[in-house]
Amino acid sequence: MPDAAPPIVPDADVLPAAGREGKDAALVQAMFDKVAARYDLANAALSLGQDAHWRRVTAQAAGPEGAEVLDVAAGPGNVAVELVARGAARVTALDLSFNMLAEGARRGHERIAWVNGDARALPFPDASFDAVTISFGLRNVPDPELALREFARVTRPGGRVVVCEFANPTWAPFRAVYRRYLVGALPAAAKVVSSAPAAYRYLADSILAWPDRRAVATWIASAGYEQVQVKDLAGGIVAVHRGYRTP
121-154: per-residue pLDDT in tens? Predict the structure, then answer.
């Protein structure tokens, strides 16, 4: 089970701010606690089944074979399971939401430790992990640049960071269609498949407010990683960044 008891959080019906300014970590936690039960179902439906592929790419990019890996914003452990399947020696799945972690721990996966914690203040010593991954979670952190510096702190020299996050499609006509989907169709569809459809209004707004892939790459480099590269998936809907910890 997760390593900490659930803290007291505010009303989960109040959504966090979509952008960085004014984002409250407690509201983020409350929102994800509420969607935990049907999180996988909703993600699969709203991504048309592509979310599993995106997480597999994230896990593979981390080079997990024989590695100690930290998966941040792990949710119920979908990336953590992929990391184990690809040979990770041990995966630490960290999330701010206790309910998300409890859902993952309930499934009984081996070689995964569940830790309730904040990406901005990781409860681990320096240079603890060979790789750090975060999948669709960085934009939910009130200070993503601070989180990336924490990732670098706990990454061993030469180790990897992999950041998988939503992005704007690179082709302008598709970008326009995608933005209409986010604003209109996604929140409407969430009413059918999610236990907390309002959370998916936040999802849409937070994607629209998220900076471009170049800005994210700059953050990763500034945090202490080098050779930062990005791979676009699904026409640029998703961007997977990878960097290597400077010696």
Answer: 999 999 999 999 999 999 999 999 999 999 999 9
pLDDT tens digit sequence for 158-180: 999 999 999 999 899 999 999 88
> Percent of the chain beyond pLDDT 90?
68
Q: Cα(185)–Cα(187) distance, rounded to whole angstroms?
A: 6
Taken in order of first residue, the domains within the chain and their CATH numbers are: 25-170+198-245 (3.40.50.150)
Three-state SS across the chain?
CCCCCCCCCCCCCCCCCCCCCCCCHHHHHHHHHHHHHHHHHHHHHHCCCCHHHHHHHHHHHCCCCCCEEEEECCCCCHHHHHHHHCCCCEEEEEECCHHHHHHHHHCCCCCEEEEECCCCCCCCCCCCEEEEEEECCHHHCCCHHHHHHHHHHHEEEEEEEEEEEECCCCCHHHHHHHHHHHHHHHHHHHHHHCCCCHHHHHHHHHHHHCCCHHHHHHHHHHHCEEEEEEEEEHHHCEEEEEEEECC
